[in-house]
Structures are given as structure tokens and as C-alpha cells.
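Collaborator request, handled under Task 6.
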Amino acid sequence: MSTSIIKRHGTHRPSSGLKEACRVTTTANLTLSGLQTIDTVTVVEGDRVLANDQTNGAENGPWVASASAWKRPRDWNADNDVVNGLGFFVYEGSLSGLYQVSFTLSEGETFTLGTTAVTFGTLSPASDYYKKPEADTLLAAKAPLSNPAFAGTVSDPSGNVRSGRKNLIINGAMAVSQRGTSATGATSNTYETVDRFTHEFDGSSLVVNDEQSTDAPSGFTHSKKVTVTTGDTLGTSDHFIPWEARVEGNALACTGWGTSDAKPVTISFCVKSNRTGTYTVDFTLSMTGDSYLSLPYTIDVADTWERKTITFAPNTTVGATFDNAKRLSIFWWVAAGPSYSAGSAPTAWGPQVDNTRAVGCTNTLNANDYFAMTGVQLELGSVATEFEHRSYGEELALCQRYYYNSEIFGYFPRGIVIAGVGGVSSRNQTSPFPLPVVMRTTPSVSLLTLNFDSTDNTNQASYFSVYARGNSVSFIRYSGGITLTADAIEKVHFTADAEL
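C-alpha cells returned to the collaborator:
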């Protein structure tokens, strides 16, 4: 739930602008290392903390919390970053509010970061600037959601005002499904219904159906639902992952992963199943050096939509690689054999160890077990915010960077007039078809349907080839072999696939 700023007559404001908000401020001299509890708030990796009670006043100011030594943030890392009158919002703890920088210099003296003492005076409490919704469940990690309406209330515990594009997941509302709405006897590791989400599973007897379902919590119209039709007790190396999302490296540059400025990220999603229990979300990075972390969540109430929130600490160790390749895979583990579940649950990023990926998950699936998910959002920071809804047209265009199916529009996308070739079987025709968006890479193109509007109405795909040139234009080519009347019209449907 977003938070709005109230402008009140007479409210004090900082005289020199605002810096990025801090989560909490101090109540006493602080050791500037390690994760700790400050003013009842337990800070996590990457939180900004405003130190205001240091014995050495030059240490006052914003810091970035870390399990090791804390560092100054980029906006407070040089002498010219500090100006009298700068303001900081603090949005949690008993001392939350608006603070203003103050320091005193002798004549001719200049400010020196780390030497000049600074203090922060309170201009106004947080309540003068923030209007928080009166609720608190949507972002709670285990809050049940009733269908059709969410149960309980909702709030943004950070009090932050967030705007602009924030969700790094495409089609998180499961609205776009270019390949179709159902797949009976689904195939593992294959995109079959909802765009940008695939699934992985194996087992000697396991059979599942995949669908774009209209069963969804309030505020959403669809979910990706996977239903077991033939159950199985999974073998040692068997597993069941009903949802997998793959993220392009270009979308991850904002995380700063692989650098000292790496940020935490938070994933939130709505889930529903007939099975309660422990499950895991597994982030696997494929950059310069691989890294992974799998964290648990629980489904607490059967057959009820629940919203889950999981925060992943900054990853400063993996080498940053931000390009158009698959650099992040997100796996939602539901069931697995011992090869994936017999180890100890990880607590920090590190090399992938298979038997720690699904710790706590069951190894038994029964007929009619189902797992549905929607409202998937991945964003910067340690707090989940309200889901970012995008229009269907915008979401479709984002999906078409990876896959395009001309049949979803219900008509032939291209009519090509082959003029003056009556009775000729050797004439070649090539026609360009511009794709609606620039695709991730040169796609593989497949012909779906072909029709000739001609006297003999021959419909033989074997005489046609479909291929891509570059990453944004597809060409359809008549290669001879059919005798056509003059002014015959070639009509085609095709797919272009540039999936990760």
C-alpha cells in the first residue's frame, strides 16, 4: 500500500533539500559494525541507519548496515555531500521523523567528512509528513487472504513513498498467456501457458496439468495453477517446481549485485494450495561466478489465498554481469527427494549445494493436489510494497520481447499479393514482417498456419520457409513448388521465440 505525503501549513521543512530516507536513528553511541537492534528495530543488510549519538560527533550521519563493518552511503561519502540544513526522513522506531543536519565551522574553516562533528535536530515527527493506511496484512509474510477479498488490513511498514517502475518481474499478475490457457499432461521445463513462467518436475509416475486460472485474490484476474493428476512419491533426485521465473541480466543492474553498493531485494507473491506446509524460494544467479540462496515460507491455511514476503540480503560477492542472458532464475520448490532436501537450510549467499535447495519440502504428491500463484513482485529494498499493476498492453509488449505468437490476434497478420504469377511454379517471393517489439535476441521462428487464397487453394507448408533476420524483423518466403493463379494471396501465422 503506497504512502502519501501530507503538506501541512506551518510544518517545518529542511532548508537544503532531502537525502534518501533512513530506516531508523540511534538512541545511544553505536558500534558501526554488525547487524543489531536499534530503537526496537532489527536492521538487516543494506538498511540505512542515521547515527546521531556518537561519542565522536564526526561519526554521526547515515550509514549502511552490514554484518561486517558499516560503510558510508554514496550520498554521504565526500566533503561536498554534506551541507547545513540537509534533511533526512527516519521512518521506523520511536524517534521516526524529519531530521536536519547542523554543524559549526570557525572562520576560514571548511567541512571535512570524518573530522567535522555534525548533529541532527528534529524538525517534525513522522506523523506530520506521512499519511499511513490504517491496515496491515497485504505485506505480512503469512497473512491469509480471503477470496474474493483480502482479509485484514494493509500498510507499508516503511512509510516510504515509492513511484515509478519497481517490479523486476514481467507478467507477475499472470494476465498474458500467448501459448494458450491450459496444458494437459504438461511437459517439464517448458513454457506452456502463462508467459514468463515455466515449471520443472520429474518422477516415475507424476503427471500434472498447467493452466492460466481465473481463481485469483481480490485485485487480480488470473493465476498460474498447476494441478497433480497422477500422484507420486518422489525418488531420490526427483522434484516438483510449479513455478520458475527467469530474469534477464539487463533488468538486474539496479541491484548493484557483485559490487560494494549491492542492495537487498524483496519478493512477494500470493499463493494458494490444498496443501499446507513448508516450501522454499530459490534465487540462483548465473553471473561471473555462480551464487544462490534458498529461503523458506509456509502455507498456513489450505484453500486460501495468502500473501508471502521474503527479503534476500545484498549479494556483494558474485561478479556483476548485466546483459541479455539469463542471470537470475527463481524457483518455487514444492516437493523434492533427498538429493534436494536432506541438507541444512542456507542462511547466506554461496555456491549452490543441491541438497539445501528444498529443505523442509515434502516428497509426496497426491492426485488433485494443486498450487496456484499470482501477484509476483521483485523489488529493491527490504520492504514489500503494493503490487505494481501494469496495463495488459504494456505487459504484453514486455512479454513479446521473449515470445511472439501472431495467432493471439485472431487473424492472419500478413497478406502478400503475388501478382502475375499465374501458372508459374518456380517464382520466389520474399516478404518482410516487422515484429511488434525488439526481441531479446534473434528469435527462432516457426510456421503455425499457411493459406493461399487462390483458385487451386493449395495449402502446403512444405513449400514455405520462415526465418528471422536480426532481432526485430521476420521474413516469410515462397520457395516454389505450387502452381498459383495470378494475384494469389499468401496468409501465414507464426511464432518467434527468444526465451531465456
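The cover message to the collaborator said: "The chain is about 0% helix and 35% strand. Residues 176 and 396 are 6 Å apart (CA to CA). Please let us know whether this matches your experimental observations."
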